[in-house]
Design brief:
CATH architecture of the largest domain: 3-Layer(aba) Sandwich
Number of strands: 15
CATH topology of the largest domain: Rossmann fold
CATH superfamily of the largest domain: P-loop containing nucleotide triphosphate hydrolases
Protein name: Cobalamin synthesis protein P47K
Organism: Pseudoleptotrichia goodfellowii
Distance between the termini: 49 Å
GO cellular component, one term: cytoplasm
CATH class of the largest domain: Alpha Beta
Number of domains: 2
Shape: globular
InterPro entries: CobW-like_C (IPR011629), CobW/HypB/UreG_nucleotide-bd (IPR003495), P-loop_NTPase (IPR027417), Zinc-reg_GTPase_activator (IPR051316)
Mean pLDDT: 87
Structural class: alpha/beta
Order of helices and strands: EHEHEHEHEEHHEHEHEHEEEEEEH
Strand content: 15-25%
Number of helices: 10
């Protein structure tokens, strides 16, 4: 079993990248999802999207590990899960998507420590949100720089609103951190087969130390299940309050609100968010992550929105 770790900070677009990789390549995968929050929303998204047109025998397995980080607090569960996946499913490739606040060097060291001859660690990939690159590099340097420094392949995402000169500036800055990485600044949705095949090759970059680094996370998370809201207008008002720091500083939010008539799916990164609607059955849970969250105020508001509906 070949293990490919795809890292990236909160909201970088790892899940979207993985969906495109599966679509563009004809390989046998199992996906291992590690969420920082208590609800694995990305895992549910992957299950639905990658298995949409597959028969039961063709479906891709998605394993989930929530409420912790596979690089430190839940590393024993992570390592034992890898062995179980290899011994029971034995896929050609295991894609590991760690939490956005995970140290990539710790993940790589944890996999290496398994010491099982049937498990081969491939050169890792890091996905970077080009729009928040300089902000997050400065504010969350310990995690952000670690993910870059030990990555063999680095792919910029969310590039559509940036000029070629701006993308080159980011790539040049990345080279000052890791001058051996393969840096891709083009739109991977338009990439050819050679690009995708190339991501499964390359030399591993040895971390500075084999020891597991202990990092005190600056991030807090709020998970709220059975999330209801009146309608789209109320959802827009609520998300606008988040980006204007009404509930404190929140870098990441995602999930599903249930209204009386439809579901509202939302995805928030930094000061931007997107929404779409569906009638399909979905778990109406939401997760918010950030360094300074007024948990009491946020939960009180979420409870109040549910009471209005009921």
């Amino acid at each position: 079993m070949k293990v490919l770790v795809i890292s990236g900070f909160l909201g970088a677009g790892k899940t979207t990248f993985i969906k495109q990789m599966i679509k563009a390549t004809n390989r046998e995968y199992v996906i291992f999802e590690n969420e920082f929050g208590d609800v694995n929303i990305d895992g549910e998204i992957l299950k639905k999207s990658v298995n949409q047109d597959k028969t039961e025998n063709e479906e891709i397995n998605v394993w989930e590990l929530s409420s912790g980080c596979a690089c430190c607090s839940t590393k024993a569960d992570f390592m034992s899960s890898l062995l179980v996946i290899d011994n029971t499913l034995n896929p050609d490739f295991l894609i590991v998507e760690p939490s956005g606040i995970a140290l990539l060097s710790n993940i790589l060291n944890n996999v290496k420590k398994i010491g099982y001859e049937r498990i081969e660690l491939l050169a890792p990939i890091t996905v970077i949100d080009a729009q928040t690159y300089f902000k997050y590099k400065s504010k969350y340097a310990e995690v952000f720089l670690d993910q870059i420094s030990v990555s063999t392949h680095i792919q910029l995402s969310k590039i559509e609103n940036l000029s070629d000169d701006e993308l080159k500036l980011i790539a040049d800055d990345i080279k000052t951190i890791n001058n051996t990485a393969n840096i891709y600044i083009g739109d991977y949705h338009k990439a050819d087969t050679d690009y995708w095949n190339g991501l499964f090759s390359g030399e591993l970059i040895k971390p500075d130390s084999d020891e597991i680094k202990i990092v005190k996370s600056k991030m807090k998370n709020v998970t709220f299940r059975d999330a209801h809201i009146r309608d789209m207008r109320a959802a827009l008002f609520f998300l606008d309050k988040i980006i204007f720091n009404y509930y404190g500083e929140i870098n990441r939010g995602k999930g599903v609100f249930k209204t009386p008539d439809y579901n509202i799916h939302f995805d928030l990164v930094d000061k931007n968010y997107s929404m779409y609607f569906s009638q399909e059955e979905a778990e109406n849970s939401v997760v918010f992550i950030g360094p300074e969250i007024d948990k009491e105020l946020l939960i009180k508001e979420l409870e109040k929105m549910g009471e209005i509906i009921i």
